[in-house]
Amino acid sequence: MAQSNKHEAIERNVFFLIVLTLLAVSVGGLVEIVPLFFQTSTTTAVDDKGNKLDVKPYDPVRLVGRDIYIREGCYNCHSQMIRPFRAETERYGHFSVAGEFIYDHPFQWGSKRTGPDLARVGGRYTSEWHRTHLINPRDVVEESNMPAFPWLNRPADFSDVQDKMRALRQVGVPYSDEEIRTADATIKAYQNEELGGIAPTELDALIAYLQGLGTALRNVR
Amino acid sequence: MLDSINADFTSSFWGLYVAGLVTISLLVCVLILVLNMTSRETGAPQVQAHTWDETLQEYNNPLPKWWLYLFWGTLVFAVVYLAVFPGYGTANDDRGARAEYAKETEKFQQVFDKYAKVDVAALAQQPEAVATGKRLFLTYCIQCHGSNAKGSPGFPDLTDNDWLYGGEADTVKTSILEGRAGVMNAFGAVLSGDEIKDVANYVRSLSGLSADAARVQRGEAVFAANCTVCHGPDGKGAASMGAAFAALGAPNLTDNVWLYGNSEAKIIEGVTRGRNFDNRSLKNAMPAWGEFLGEGKVTLLAAYVHSLSQKK
Questions:
Q1: Using a CB-CB distance cutoff of 8 angstroms, which residues of chain A are in contact with residue B11?
Q2: N or C: which end of chain B has fewer CB within 10 A?
Q3: Is residue B111 part of a domain?
């Protein structure tokens, strides 16, 4: 058999080479990623057994708190993804399921734990604890190496929260017109009911966000 | 098996889609290898027709044998892998991982469950149980109470045998199991600034701390009118008025043990704004751990916490 010369056809035609390369590298994504967009467990609020979860889009205060979480780089040290191992579920609670994150754009799963996982931190500590801890972690946990975030004790900026909600609606978060229109009233109500009328600081917004984390599947291993 | 995975997919198409693409890509790899099979010819190596950079030419050699066998090897591996692990579109088989997880959880649950109804005070005498309780404490409790259990401002010291809700072993267990919600109402709207300062001085004097004598005298009347309902007529706390009142959690103000600090400013802050539990912002609260930890672990924790103040 003569030595094959067919490879020349690809090597001498750059466009053909590009097309074949793209085809080859896309197979993995087409098989492993694309079907996830069409699975009930990854696109709707259900747990691993198919039970419906009470997952709601972030209210305006929590949404701003979430952006502070991202701005301060909390995700660099804190994951939000409890893996289905006993050692993790003993400490943090039920392992995370995809349905809990359907309104997270982008999700905050993180990839490194210098601090503990925060996926189910909601309701675990008092808000006073969070306040003390964020201003100076050493005040409550002597051994902590978490940096202090004292500057968060300043008024939170809610001026663009409606734009944020509209932007999230573009990527599929079901905020109603009503919810967007009344965002300011929602913030005002939070201010009056929980903060005694004092305008929410960035600490308040961040704590509101943290206190809501993982509560859809709470207290179950 | 096809049904269970298709139940998760929004359409049964996707099972076939995955299986189809996997099969096609494997077949294409095989096809490329087979169609290009060739053997090395003896004699001078064949040179490809093109020339680059004036003199640069390429041999047209077959694929190296070691590389070719590795390629075949990966194809065989892929087929074996698909047979052993679920990856063929239709398989929703976790290879027993969930069952194993449930079994392990059950196994450890039993270890802890056997402590659920054991008497806490008796358990506190068993070194092994206390050691287990300590390890649980280091995981779940140190964030507020500290690794030495000595607490921090707003979070009680568990080693000093001074208790807000009562220190009996079973009461400690109830506190962990069901949580506690502290109630100290805000008096900012009820009392004037001067009255609050007076009562703060009076409260300081109860613990023998330095206080303005004139204010202490006036503060006593303010205290009698507003504070005795919870803190007791002599300020010795709710628990001093009998077990029925202990659940109020109002602290003994005469023992110089302070949850939020003993400075005049801190006391004024507490009286003015209150230290009220609030269902949503969760202030001044001990979270309930019963549901999350289960009664077995809570009993072990209570035994450890109880043992801390028994040593003295």
A1: 38
A2: C
A3: no
Cβ within 8 Å, pair A5-B48: yes
A 71-110 → B contacts, CB under 8 A: 84, 86, 89-91, 93
Specify the number of domains making up chain B.
3
Question: Which residues of A, range 7-36, sit inside 8 Å of B by Cβ?
Answer: 7-8, 12, 27, 30-31, 35
Residue from the list A86, A90, A129 with its beta carbon closest to the beta carbon of B144: A129
Domain of residue B267 covers 186-274
Last residue of a domain, which of B106, B131, B161? B106
Answer yes or no: is B280 within a domain: no
Integer-rounded Cα Rg, in Å, for chain A is 23
Residues 94-123 of B with CB under 8 A from A: 97, 101, 104-105, 108
Interface contact B11, partner A, CB < 8 A: yes
State the ipTM, two decimals: 0.79
Residue B154 touches partner A, C-beta closer than 8 Å: yes
Q: Are residues B192 and B208 in the same domain?
A: yes
| Residue-level pLDDT, tens digit, chain B, 312 residues | 344 555 678 888 888 888 889 999 999 999 988 888 877 777 777 888 888 898 998 888 888 889 999 999 999 999 998 888 777 765 556 777 778 888 888 898 898 999 988 899 899 899 999 999 999 999 999 989 998 898 888 889 999 888 888 888 899 999 999 988 888 888 888 898 899 999 999 999 998 888 888 999 999 999 999 998 889 888 888 888 877 788 888 889 988 888 888 888 889 988 988 887 654 555 678 888 888 898 999 999 999 999 998 865
Q: Identify the CATH number of the domain in which residue B197 sits.
A: 1.10.760.10
Is B87 inside any structural domain? yes
